[in-house]
Design goal:
heterodimer; A: about 900 residues; alpha+beta; Ubiquitin-like (UB roll); DNA polymerase, domain 1; Aldehyde Oxidoreductase, domain 3; 5 domains; 7-stranded mixed beta sheet; 31 strands; globular; B: about 300 residues; Uridine Diphospho-n-acetylenolpyruvylglucosamine Reductase, domain 3; Enolase-like, domain 1; 5-stranded antiparallel beta sheet; 4-stranded antiparallel beta sheet; 11 helices; 14 strands; about 35% helix
């Protein structure tokens, strides 16, 4: 019997099985794709929350039979673009919308709260939003948004920082990969290895291919070009051929395409794969043992990198105090709320077109072309709205897999990982084991640093070849060392492949160094802030790397900006402890960092600015937005350079067929490099427009003003030409309406003279006040203050949001997150911080302009993650009076440390 | 295609269960039923939704007992004024299940049928010495929650043939208080490393009844009877509670779980947990005592 109910004030009917979750009916039958799915329909994430008779419920846990005769409200029913609900307005104004994937669930929960309680307390807000996972914002801006919606000020904030795509994201109109409808869509599923290490002996697909709804099964034999993407990952096959080894649980063996996702999943079991199980290990120490079973590389080693200068023995010998310890970090998952999702089809020029969240459309285009044996021009990659990345979406695998299926089938194919698959098979953060030795003189001058980092790259390279350089570099910090001997090695194991993750290889190294520094500071009985000030690297001095850094350093300014917070937190902790009965103890931890931003590769980045025939101002660039806000910052930078309002600028971003290649987007380089090119392109276009208009109006260009609509003479607004007229004039005189902007540092850093990576660094520091229950080992972070040099702020709301999100991500790594290969199955046992775990945060953005950027900007997105974890761990270590050297600091680890257990 | 039935009475619900002879399944909030169906743990031909049966969504506060209907959600429990001021452990336990929007659907009765060793609803029910009212073809009977659990994830109530219509617990005559304490890897959406519910009844400056329930320290939610017996006759206070906590530690037998915590940790953290929960219960009982005294004198 059909089920009738009301959705968004309109009647709806479904013939679905009543035991099916409401979520599927909303998305698949009613096209209400604003409601998101982030887990495997287990109520683990909160992205699918809707209102049922005004009460928030998880649509994935609600049988559609239950809603018969009742009223459902989804994000689409909240308010459209032209009549937003106040809660939607508030989310936009407070910067609470980043990737937007948790947003619909958050909005619905907030809406129900405000309907019930128009003046909610902070606790009411936390209770209402608890259990809705967000990985971008660190929740702080979401809390501010709900408060704003409850008590809107007489004037809504100016909106100068408004996200370009936020209206789409708060109304459910934004089409993420899973939301894009396409005729004749097919659905893919992946057969993956159940073993951490095994040889694939036979693979039989006939029975599966005969199953109802199945279109085709693909194996390694179906790959026309290269079976891999070796420039990104050495020795990682797209699909493992028979006779070769699968090196991790989740290693892909076959692809199956069917007419429905359910048919694909059901048929997968009928592919027969036989394996010879091989010995496996998840531990780097075991993989390096002589006699260890070979996994890959030479003796299971991928790459090594070393920095060495100064007389290490004499420098260490001159130290009055030496700290030597091993620090260990866990395997971490990105936890983007949108699962890995990629869609492919043939575009109107018959190109293999692949849509999916990624960091570099042109690189993905190249990987796909190589696998298919095609020219790059025959492939196109487009960035859709994306539900978070944090590095996870740099993995080429889902792109080449979908490219392969579309190549053979010439029909749209969508691949969406289950959350379980995402945990099994998508890249993770490399766990480190770091043996570190640092020394200082009695008066607190650092002398030497010696360390050996073993980074677990898991089963496949996946960019791990570059990890040692990043690890070693980050470990030095913005400090003055007399001698350095630091080595890092990436080691193969049978754990999940580790890959790109916010801060790529640096946060684990900074954790070890900053905790070891704190040990040293305690032994010297010095102040951690003064100690760092005293040892800070000065401009022009030889850095940890053996040569000076290139860009301006704002570390001193950051530490000074932190000082009042450090003093206040310390005083508060002291007062708390004096009142406490001894079971609870508070302490303050501090950590600094440097982060090499900008990466290298090409030092020449291009963007275009165009005056369209219709008078529009259009920017073409490649700075993919996966939630961090590049669509907005590029728009702001262009508008500022053109001198027009933001809404007059259109952005075409990250479509390999339409925009120039701006290189790999990582290492927080978008605003610095691409932003620089966008600004120059916009400036060039402005000058060209004014030049043409000057001829048309017979007025000198410096007497003219560009507005969103046209050009007017200064002081005489009646002398005006519209942009449409100017565009026509460009065409008449044969002048190109599209101008390039080139941001090029290759002259400043001549080839052959520069190191492999440019020594551009940002610095910053954080303090954390923590509270520990000394009887149970439960730790909470009460407050965090962060001061970061960002060069120059482009968008203050978003910059703050990046820092808050990074702090909470660092808190997760410090206290709760740990991925266990083969055991972690979902968000139920991978513990992302929830809203009640977050501290009060004080964010200070320090502006010491970059020497190289025309805008003065530096990189921000990753750096604030680095000091968060060691600041928290230093706080806990000080609170319990014992050093914690392994994270996460679970209640178990903290209590074991207190009780003196190993 | 599953049949979805919305019976208007308990007898109608029983009639449907009888008709399907084990192939129908009771659904209340459905927050456990749906994942079970998806994973193939259950494959009912019919879902029998009991949330529209009149009366089952009621919380009845009688003179001697509280009765919570099987369709009452954890949210409704947590927001109930009487429970908020008199049975705080139940309110806190209800607010610890999943998250707010799961509490809007999930029910106490459903939580009990799932019979997980650490289910927050089960641990607090055990401490309250609650009983469930079970209807089946043979009639209605009260089953103490203590006798509900058959093993990890298994209860003696079969939701394909039986219906829990209510959870009921006694309101003690004498001043009493409840306590709740939970340790988890985070604050919400997570099974506990340990949870503990306590009930204390006071008279004449002494403890006359104590209940201490814990999870997961045994295959099913656990009552620490040795510690409870020790507390009887003791004056409430740190000394007695610390000794009781030591006894609980001795009679508990937790397992190790890699995703949550080891046996060793659970045993080590347990005394603080019990101490905190007993202290809360005692403070609330004393407050009631004080209130009674003031009422009498005032």
């Amino acid at each position: 019997m059909p089920i009738s109910f009301t959705v968004n004030h309109r009647p709806a009917t479904t013939a679905a099985d009543p035991a099916v979750p409401l979520l599927r009916v909303l998305r698949e039958e009613l096209g209400l794709t604003g409601t998101k799915q982030g887990c495997d329909e287990e109520g683990e994430c909160g992205a699918c929350t809707v209102l049922l008779d005004g009460q928030p419920v998880r649509a994935c846990l609600t049988a559609v039979g239950k809603v018969a005769g009742r009223t459902v409200l989804t994000v689409e029913g909240l308010g459209g673009a032209d009549h937003l609900d106040s809660v939607q307005e508030a989310f936009i104004a407070a910067g609470a919308v980043q990737c937007g994937y948790c947003t619909p669930g958050m909005l619905m929960a907030a809406k129900a709260l405000l309907d019930r309680e128009p003046n909610p307390s902070e606790i009411d807000i936390l209770d209402a939003l608890d259990g809705h996972l967000c990985r971008c914002t660190g929740y702080a801006s979401i809390i501010r948004a709900v408060k704003l919606a409850a008590a809107p000020p007489p004037t809504i904030p100016s909106g100068a920082d408004r996200r370009a795509d936020s209206v789409d994201k708060v109304t459910g109109r934004a089409r993420y990969v899973e939301d894009i409808p396409m005729p004749a869509m097919l659905y893919a599923a992946v057969l993956r290895s159940p073993h951490p290490h095994a040889r694939l002996l036979t693979l039989t697909t006939d029975r599966a291919a005969q199953m109802p709804g199945v279109v085709r099964v693909f194996t390694a034999a179906d790959i026309p070009g290269i079976n891999g993407f070796p420039s990104y990952s050495q020795e990682e096959p797209v699909l493992t051929p028979v006779g070769q080894t699968v090196r991790m649980i989740g290693a892909p063996v076959a692809l199956l395409v069917a007419q429905t996702p359910q048919a694909a999943a059901a048929a997968l079991k009928n592919i027969e794969a036989n394996y010879e199980v091989l010995p496996h290990t998840y531990e780097v120490d075991e993989a390096l043992d002589t006699g260890a079973y070979p996994i890959a590389g030479t003796k299971n080693i991928l790459t090594t990198f070393q920095v060495r200068h100064g007389d290490i023995d004499s420098a260490m010998g001159s130290a009055a105090e030496v700290v030597a310890a091993r620090y260990e970090t866990a395997y971490l998952a990105h936890g983007a709320i949108e699962r890995e999702a990629v869609l492919g089809y043939l575009d109107d020029e018959s190109r293999i077109t692949v849509i999916g969240g990624n960091h570099e459309p042109h690189n993905q285009q190249g990987y796909i072309a190589d696998v298919l044996g095609l020219q790059r021009e025959q492939v196109r990659v487009i960035q859709p709205p994306t539900g978070g990345s944090f590095g996870s979406r740099q993995d080429p695998w889902p792109f080449v897999a979908v490219g392969l299926m579309v190549y053979h089938l010439r029909q749209p194919v969508r691949l969406v990982y289950t959350r379980r698959e995402s945990f099994d098979a998508a890249p993770k953060r490399h766990p480190y084991k770091t043996d570190i030795r640092i020394g200082a003189t009695r008066d607190g001058r650092l002398t030497a640093i010696q360390e050996n980092i073993l980074a677990n790259t898991g089963a496949y390279d996946s960019g791990g070849q570059f990890i040692p350089n990043f690890a070693v570099t980050a470990s030095g910090g913005p400090y003055r060392w007399q001698a350095v001997d630091a080595t890092a090695t990436t080691v193969y194991t049978n754990g999940c492949k580790a890959g790109q993750f916010r801060g790529f290889g640096t946060s684990q190294a900074v954790f070890a160094t900053e905790c070891a520094l704190d040990e040293l500071v305690q032994r010297l009985r010095m102040d951690p802030l003064e100690f760092r000030l005293q040892n800070r690297l000065l401009q022009g001095e030889r850095s940890f790397l053996g040569y000076p850094v290139a860009d301006s350093l704002g570390f001193e300014q950051a530490l000074e900006a932190l000082r009042p917070h450090y003093d206040a937190y310390s005083a508060e902790a002291k007062a708390f402890n004096e009142e406490s009965d001894g079971s609870m103890r508070r302490a303050v931890g501090l950590a600094g960092m440097w982060y090499r931003f900008g990466k290298s590769g090409t030092l020449r980045v291009e963007a275009y600015a165009e005056l369209a025939r219709d008078g529009g101002l259009v920017i073409y660039c490649s700075a993919p937005d996966y939630g961090q806000g590049t669509n907005t910052s590029m728009n702001q930078i262009a508008a500022a350079a053109l001198g027009v309002p933001r809404e007059n600028v259109t952005l075409v971003n990250a479509d390999s067929a339409r925009v120039p290649d701006s290189g790999i987007q990582g290492a927080s380089r978008a605003t610095f490099f691409v932003g620089g090119a966008v600004s120059l392109a916009a400036e060039n276009l402005k000058n060209a427009i004014l030049g043409v208009a000057a001829e048309m109006l017979d007025v000198a260009p410096d007497q003219l003003q560009l507005t969103g609509a046209g050009v007017t003479a200064t002081g005489d607004p009646t002398r005006l030409v519209t942009l449409v007229e100017i565009a026509r004039e460009f065409d008449r005189i044969g002048k190109s309406r599209r101008l390039a902007g080139v941001f090029d540092l290759s002259d400043r850093f001549p080839a052959g003279m520069r190191p492999e990576y440019l020594p551009l660094f940002v610095t910053g520091a954080q303090v954390a006040q923590v509270q520990v229950d000394l009887r149970t080992g439960e730790a909470r972070v009460v407050r965090v203050a962060a001061a970061h040099d960002v060069g120059r702020v482009v968008n203050r709301t978003d910059a703050r949001g990046q820092v808050e999100g990074a702090i909470v991500m660092g808190l997760g790594a410090a206290l709760m997150e740990e991925y266990l290969p083969g055991e972690t199955t979902g968000f139920r046992n991978y513990y992302l911080p929830t809203i009640k775990a977050i501290p009060q945060m004080d964010i200070v953005l320090v502006e010491v302009p970059s020497i190289f950027s025309p805008l003065g900007v530096k990189g921000l997105g990753e750096a604030p993650l680095l000091p968060a974890t060691p600041a928290i761990i230093n706080g806990i270590s000080r609170a319990i009076g014992v050093r914690l050297r392994t994270i996460p600091a679970t209640p178990e680890r903290v209590l074991a440390a207190i009780l003196g257990k190993p | 295609m599953t049949t979805y039935c919305v019976p208007g009475s308990i007898s109608e619900a029983l009639e449907i269960l009888g008709r399907y002879d084990g192939d129908a399944l009771i659904i209340a909030g459905g927050t456990d039923v749906l994942p079970d169906i998806r994973k193939g743990k259950r494959s009912p031909r019919c879902l029998v939704d009991i949330t529209h049966i009149p009366g089952l969504d009621q919380i009845t506060v009688a003179r001697e007992y509280v009765e919570v209907g099987a369709a009452v959600t954890f949210s409704a429990l947590a927001q109930h004024p009487y429970l908020q001021s008199h049975v705080q452990a139940l309110v806190d336990a209800a607010a610890a299940v999943g998250s707010a929007d799961i509490q809007n659907a999930a029910t106490w009765a459903g939580n009990l049928v799932q019979a997980l060793p650490a289910a927050d609803g089960a641990v607090v029910a055990l401490a309250l010495e609650a009983q469930v009212l079970v209807h089946d073809k043979d009639g209605m009977r009260g089953l103490p929650v203590a006798r509900l659990f058959a093993g990890p994830g298994r209860s003696f109530v079969d939701p394909t043939r039986q219906i829990i219509t209510a959870v009921r617990f006694r309101i003690p005559e004498r001043p009493w208080g409840t306590g709740w304490r939970r340790i988890g890897r985070r604050d919400s959406l997570v099974l506990p490393i340990l949870n503990c519910a306590t009930v204390l009844e006071l008279a004449g400056g002494h403890i006359i009844r104590a209940a201490i329930a814990l999870g997961p320290v045994a295959p099913t939610p656990f009552r620490a009877t040795a510690a409870e017996e020790f507390l009887i006759g003791q004056p409430p206070g740190d000394e007695a509670f610390a000794e009781a906590a030591r006894l609980v530690q001795r009679e508990s037998n937790p397992r190790s779980s890699r995703a949550r915590a080891s046996r060793e940790y659970r045993l080590a953290a347990l005394p603080a947990l019990v101490l905190d929960a007993l202290t809360l219960a005692s403070r609330r009982a004393q407050e009631k005592l004080e209130l009674q005294r003031r009422e009498r004198t005032g």
